[in-house]
Amino acid sequence: MKMFEMVKDGRLFHVALKIIPDSEDNLSIRLSFDDGENVRTELLTISFPGKRIKNHAYIDTNRHGWEITKWLIDNNLAEPALGYLADEKGIYPVYRFPASMLRKADPAGYAVYLAGLKKSGKV
Questions:
Q1: What's the domain count of the chain?
Q2: CB crowding 77-107: b at 16 or more within 10 Å, else e
Q3: Residue 86 lies in domain
Q4: Which of 55, 63, 81, 87 is the most exposed place for a label (fewest CB within 10 A)?
Q5: Half-sphere exposure (CA, 13 Å, Cβ side) for 91?
């Protein structure tokens, strides 16, 4: 599993991405933040009903702020795609995650995600 660095609230974190398909076999990603003392996990993406394009997900900017989108781009983890969803809590942009990055970040999780897509006929 590949680790990435993030500075948040003035502290350095080592961040791992864990791919966990949602109930509709859409891409869902959990971040694990390790500051050397504690590890905490949070969802990066947010699930909405409906099918997503392969390797696309809504980013939870309500939880992480818009800074997370810059971090994703700066680390070549994802790029903006056309579209967003909004609710009473916020606006959630769609991002495309390159397959090569997902394979490097979490090979086992990406394999499970692809198997789910194949099984559900999305691929």
A1: 1
A2: bbeebeeeeeeeeeebbbbbbeeebbeebbe
A3: 3-120
A4: 87
A5: 5
